[in-house]
Amino acid sequence: MKNLIFYAATFVTLIQISCTKDLPLYSDDQDKLIFLHGEETGSVILPSVPSSYVLAHTFVYGTQNTDTLYVKLKTIGFIRNSDRPIELEQVLTGENDADPDVHFTALTADQYKKNYIIPAGSTTASLPIIVHREASLKNRTVNLKLRIKDNGVFRAGYESRSELLITITDALSKPANWNSAATFYFGNYGKVKHQFMIDASGEAIDEKYMDGLGFATVGFYNEKFDGDYVTYINGIYKRKLNEENQRRAAMTPALSPLQEENKTVVSFP
Amino acid sequence: MRTKIIAIATCTIFLIVSCYKDQGNYEYLPIEEIAINGINENYSGYSLEETISIVPNIDTKIDEKNLEYLWMVYPKQNSTVAEIDTIGDKKDLNYSLNIPQGDYILTFQVKNKTNNYIVSKSTNLQSTTRFARGFYVLKETNIGETDLDLHINDMNKAEDLIIRTEGHSMPGKPTNLGINFGYSFIDNKVQKMVGGKVIVPMTTLEARTLRINDMQQIYGYQDMFFEDKNTNEVPYFFNRIGYTTYMVTSQGIYSTVSMPEFGLYTSGKFGIATQPAGISPYIVKCQQASSLFYFDSSGKRFLATDRNGAIHEFSDDGKIATPNQIPHSCLFMGSFHHSSIGSRITAIFQSNTDINQRLLYSINYKNSNFSNPIEKVITLREDLASSKASRYATNGKDVRILYSVSSKNEIYAYNIDTEQEIKLTPDSFPLDEEVTYIAHKYWNGANDATNRFNYLVLATFKDGRYRLFLYNMLGGQPTGAPAMVLEGKGKVKDVQYALPTFDYSKDEINYM
Predict the structure, then answer these.
(1) Model pTM?
(2) Which residues of B touch A226 (CB under 8 A)?
(3) What residue ranges do the domains of chain B occupy?
(4) Domains contained in chain A, number
(5) Contact between chains at A228 and B272 (C-beta distance less than 8 A)
(6) B258 touches A at CB < 8 Å
(7) Which residue among B139, B256, B365, B436 is least crowded, i.e. fewest CB within 10 A of its CB?
(8) What ipTM was estimated for this complex?
(9) Count of A–B CB contacts within 8 Å?
(10) Which CATH fold topology does B34-128 show?
(11) Same domain for A53 and A160?
(12) Tens digits of residue pLDDT in B58-68
């Protein structure tokens, strides 16, 4: 019994001495990739609801039949001194999915290959996606959902940043940065309202226009935002909408105030 | 044998474990205290001109060679992380004030080098300019144009600031002098939206925004707006209430919302006049409702803004008098605010049926439901001087008094509550000079006790020169000799007091 107590005490002492945990150095060799959203450059990743970011493209403002979009990616892991290939794959959403080589150049096409890399010594890349104007896009929007494919070099990083939704249309579409801050000034988005704004301003009401007013794709505002100027622009739209509705009322027969397809009357806050 | 080996091994382990040398210091001694004295609560000086000298007393038993000193300065800001500048590492400070105008925290730190024990003391530092404090006088020049004088006190003044900074006075006769202690605008030098204190001289033809600390023009009349202005658009009023800055012209009410004191900036430019558009030069700030109250001369009605600048009409309950369809001509509007009574507005009208009859409207506007705000209408008796006055003013905070100037340049005070009038005879006030201005001006800021004042301000004009008499007040009446008499060329139209310490969160009701 004495021996047992003696051995037990010795064992406990040894366990206590060995309590210090030896933390390993970072040694994960698996490189990973994530999509960057909006204006993110890679040095700053802004918090966002994963599903809220959409890269929207419309052909409506131009005449070209193809266009090139760029999706931005960032690595997680060590910087390497050689080029590393990237592969993307389409995820079918089951709803208005874009067709390869109809709405976009298939992701396996050779013309992408030289661009689908993380260059040596780099942590970010902009990958081209070639999109096509197709007749049916006049009346609908198709979805191209991309995912980072495990190609043995890269795996997808954070789940919330491993997929990216691109919408393609030849009709008006809600600019990605028509966010809740923009809704405060311009109200809820509607296609008739959108067309009215284009007609009233003579400008393309797209991401670039909204960016110029200070609305960010991720978050609310960018550094260009001037509440006084946006309030003034809101006032101009209100004034022109009032004139338009007066013009419609004066017609024979009189037309009702401008409204969306679902009968919601167009208005600005 | 095995037991012995185990026992020896165990002892060896214990021995190894016990090899650690305890290097703890158990000689507990009381820390030598350091007390800093001789630093005042506030310091101020002119930016780029003056030196702040402080000789603190350090009360300690620590050998001076073991002490290390550090002086630091950083902006006093409400929300953003401050950038700290080190301005000295000697005990005594001689600091050339080379920081822009503003409020700062000055911190002195003493460290015992032997144990890194630190004691620090902070104080307020105000970097100001010669334009930051004083009475700005908007005046009509002797050629019928407009200029500004600044009276730093009754000994020091800077005359004709517009001519001196721009080479010529402002065209048009002076109408009003606007002020805003927290205005957001684009600083063209740095192409950035910033905040600052501005003064806005207005004439019958134009207005311009001048930054108080250096008299630099921020915006000309066209630049104040996003759209081109109608050349006939006459500026009436510029001021801030709450977070809203208003510019009122003959076309209506424009507003911007910004909070530069919290780092929320805008360009400060005005867009489209708020509807409905009816307006007149009779506009007052209503502290109780944190909004504007005014008379719409085309619609013949009272209107008011809410806190966000939207315009509201008043309902007509028909109890005392209608706030709409007022047939008379407005001659004057003034406001009063008292912490226990609340805000009241006084409007004087000339009757549309008898030009010799004047009516006093007493208005209690609370911005709750835009119900009829009229609480009393008094027809001023014809024997009262205030029924024929050429000029009016109201007491802003002490007693509900309507001041008036008669055609004989006599000053009267009419108590709106008791409906009694008395003649005022301010000490040393000349009767042979034309009275061109009367107002109640006060500054009651809690953080500026040494500069508070409560004056009845009277301006006279004679032989191309003005005299501005500032009387201390008691019960709404001037008392004693003038606290100051300020003099200059031209004829006074309006007066504003500029001060560097104004804080919108506390001081808005303390300034008039």
Answers:
(1) 0.77
(2) 193, 266-267
(3) 34-128, 131-169+388-512
(4) 2
(5) no
(6) yes
(7) B436
(8) 0.77
(9) 50
(10) Immunoglobulin-like (2.60.40)
(11) yes
(12) 999 899 899 99
